[in-house]
Amino acid sequence: MSTTDTSRGHPGAEPDGPPQDGTGTGARTGTGARTGAGTGTKDETGAGTKDETGAGTKDETGAGTEAGAGTEAADAAEHAATSQLSTAPQEESARELLSGGPSLGVIGWARWFWRQLTSMRVALILLFLLSLGSIPGSLIPQNNVDDLKVRAFQQKHDVISPVYEKLQLFDVYTSVWFSAIYILLFVSLIGCIVPRTWQFVRQLRARPPAAPRRLDRMPAHTTWRTDAAPEEVREAALRLLRKRRFRAHAAGDAVAAEKGYLREVGNLLFHLALIVMLVAFASGQLFKSEGGKLVVEGDGFANTITQYDDFRSGSLFSMDDLVPFDFTLDQFTGTYEPSGPQRGTPRTFEADVSYSEGGGPAKKAKIKVNEPLEVDGSKVFLNMHGYAPVVTVRDGKGQVVYQEAVPLLPIDGNITSTGVVKVLDGYTGKDGKKEQLGFPAFFVPTYAGKGKGQMFSTFPGLAFPVLNLGAYHGDLRVDGGMPQNVYQLDTSKMKPFKDAGGNIVKKSLRPGETMTLPDGAGSITFEKDVKEWATFQITQQPGNGLALTGAIAAIAGLVGSLFIQRRRVWVRATEGPDGVTVVEMAGLGRSESARLPEELGDLAQSLHTLAPTAPAPAAAEADSGAGTHSTSGTGSGTRPSPASPPSQSPAAPPSHESPRPPRGAAQ
Amino acid sequence: MNLAAATNESLAQGSNVLIYSSMAVYTLAFLAHIVEWVLGGRSKVGRTAAALTSAGAGATAGPAVSVRSAQGGTAVLDKPKVVTRATAGARDVPDGPGAAGDDAQGDLYGRIAVSLTVLAFLVEAGGVVARALSVQRAPWGNMYEFSITFSTVAVGVYLGLLLAKKRVRWIGLLLVATVLLDLGIATTWLYTDSDQLVPALHSYWLWIHVSTAIFCGAVFYIGAVATVLYLFRDSYEAKLARGERPGAFARSVLERLPSAASLDKLAYRVNAAVFPLWTFTIIAGAIWAGEAWGRYWGWDAKEVWSFITWVAYAAYLHARATAGWKGRKAAYIALIAFGCWLFNYYGVNIFVNSKHSYAGV
Ligand code: HEM
């Protein structure tokens, strides 16, 4: 763009007026007349069009050094007309950013820091950091997600683990550094929303800015000549635009209109909703509680801390917050595909429970995997299930010392299960000494049959249950204070029962069968009753409703923000030198607008029916049309660049959209 | 959902046959596209170079024309012509003519390729439907099903754009190639016999969450292709504008693509349009997790990577509105974001132990 742009004539008044093309008529409607003008004046086009962020934008074509102090005044005028099409914050130029803060002491620095923090650039960097920061948490096991995996990891990597520990990499999402990122982001967000909201309110109170002088520089433009009087055209335009729900008013010789404010509303709503979601999430984390409980059919659970098998809570949770309720597992039902390739695939899992709230009347409910029971804000989820064979242990005299349903842990999809029957007290050996008994148990709900492979279940349903038991006596070491896994047997202080031949006693039982211990030490019976158990997860997390509200608002805001186009339309009607009215229409939207020209065409067509084209003088047709008043005869023009022949322009396709404002950048 | 219904073996078989058939047809479409590109190479267009060199860089479309008066009568409703102007700072370069260039024979092959793609799409869609019927549920229970649905939707989006008279045929070759890759991976490594879902997946949220996730992925993919091509085309145009002469391949192939500005715009529109849906997808997933597992957000690997993807796309949208980040830098962010999406899909399922790991990958 090697323009020789000289502001002749009236510097400052209309420095980049229309090229006169030597015709001197000032007429502008004709095709050829203004050819090349765009080339020369491109850099200033729509200064500030996009918004204020224009400063610092690189002009990629770069070549144009459109100079002249005079251009600035026109720029300013155009800037006013085209600015504030959004409320995005003013961008500091990179230079400013790098040159460091002001030399104004603490307050100056604070202000500088605040400006940086609430700038789009820093928001962008923080967003980056946030996603970068969440990566380690997905690759390294996390304490609050899977504690067991963390232990395993730490045992395997004993060198790196302390380093990770220091960096809080096992607790990424609660770590100081991760919190710092999102807290900064949300401070930035608030610091961004508040001023933007005020700015938006101001924009709503003000009227759409008056038409810029050069409408033909707008991204979409159209013009025609009509016999209707200018006032008529303006009135018609005002009515038309208002009917299309533009905010419109007449200003001088033109009508200024704007539409699509909901875009800004949507954008603000979205960012606000992000804050709501964060608050909801944070309060949920702080006040939540979560615990697990295994319940065998027929047994119950009351919602107090002592009843939980395991329990976790947020740091602000207090025990009084536990909702008082209790429930009994009446029956658990699991059904499985009985045949075909899908044999064994679970079909239904459901738990029938009776529950009561705070000692109220008992109510019945069904809990399914995706359908928790909700009691007063507390939710009871069904997690796992398994079998609990009922066994009876008798001592040497035939006295029942133990009779219970023993929950066993599934180890595969067909619910092959293992566990231990532990008789803690009540048993006396035949020598009169008090002893404890332990029976390692292995249970299959459906046995393949003797000699058919190993002792693994072939179907998760109870088709052919077999219980395999070993037998130990001695000290279970449950009183030693060490927390003990109820599903494992510590045999360090126990001896296996051996039969006369010295073989360890071990037997597979069908329901109803009994294994007799050697030397009259008693017996253990696998009763005909196999119960099922289910584990429940009881959670309480306030703020869910708030989070959902925030989420819905966020989506609504986002849709508004991304799909609504904020745009301005100007209609200027003036009397041309030949007495014929010249109508000019221009549209301006944000840079990504596709529909703007269409809409403008639409509006133009409607207006055109009210103010149809006037017959043109033949001469104007051939040479150049009538000019608009604003630019005609100013005498100061941008000469078309010699490098751009007049013939080039009409051939170039109409393309692209609104000018980005490289305002200042090219000067 | 009728959970008790038995798997229909023959339907599952039929589905496999259809998927393999669609691969065969896609291969033909792929070849036809290749021929289209090769034949199109014969026509030397050079519009970009002409536009960039004739009037110096960045010649703007003259804001010339307006409406001509209708001859004689005042009652003629001549639609006023709207003149648009290029974005300041953007090169004003016409879109390339597409793969076939101005070569009629090339164009013929291009049309054949599109027809074959339509056929393959129908066959593949049939395969997906048969699979769905065979398991009596949404065909999204494992990665194999996810993959075949994904490529079907991606092709569907592409055909939809064609149907809407968008000029996107140039994307065809790359798309078909990717679809073949996707189906190849699906049938070779990810294949799982049709299978029922574990009870945790029984929820209507499966329909909502997974279908939108697949759709978002397909659209993000198209956005990513446009972004990559934008980067190539942009450096091609920059080279021309500097007066250098790009390599023969660039001159032949990149010349035929739409202009960098158009590609950039397409990428933005596609990504921006689907971003709210992606947001919805994550929220729907959170609601489902809340129902199934008792917590709506638990920093599970899949959740984390969805979040990362989301933040990355948000960063992209921010970048577009931030001075100094438009253009290439924003494009890199878009590609990183799509990389996150891909990792979330393949990487998390395969390398990371997640609650979301489906049966049989
Ligand atoms: C959690 C953090 C954030 C997320 C996820 C986010 C997301 C988004 C998204 C998706 C858009 C696109 C909507 C559009 O293009 O109109 C957007 C726009 C915007 N965001 Fe954010 N944002 C975040 C933080 C911020 C912060 C901290 C600021 C303030 C510096 C900010 C200022 C803006 C502005 C001004 C726009 C509108 C840009 C325009 O009008 O083109 N955002 N944001």
TrEMBL record, chain A:
UniProt keyword Transmembrane helix, yes or no: yes
Biased composition (Pro residues): 642-653
Subcellular location(s) of the protein: Membrane
Keywords: Cytochrome c-type biogenesis, Membrane, Transmembrane, Transmembrane helix
Feature: compositional bias, Basic and acidic residues: 41-61
InterPro entries linked to this entry: Cyt_c_bgen_Ccs1/CcsB/ResB, ResB-like_domain
Pfam families: ResB (PF05140)
Biased composition (Low complexity): 62-82, 614-641
Topological type in the membrane: Multi-pass membrane protein
Highest classification ranks of the organism: Bacteria, Bacillati, Actinomycetota, Actinomycetes, Kitasatosporales
Protein name as annotated: Cytochrome c biogenesis protein ResB
Superkingdom field: Bacteria
Segments for region (Disordered): 1-96, 614-667
TM helices/strands, residue ranges: 122-140, 176-198, 268-287, 545-564
Gly residues: compositionally biased ranges: 23-39
Signal peptide: none
Organism: Streptomyces pyxinae
From TrEMBL, chain B:
Subcellular location: Membrane
Protein's name in the database: C-type cytochrome biogenesis protein CcsB
Residues spanning the membrane: 17-39, 112-134, 146-164, 171-192, 204-232, 266-289, 304-323, 330-348
Cytochrome c assembly protein domain residues: 140-350
Record keyword Transmembrane helix present: yes
Topology in membrane: Multi-pass membrane protein
Keywords: Cytochrome c-type biogenesis, Membrane, Transmembrane, Transmembrane helix
Protein encoded by which gene: ccsB
Main location, first listed in the record: membrane
Alphabetical list of Pfam families matching this protein: Cytochrom_C_asm (PF01578)
Organism: Streptomyces pyxinae
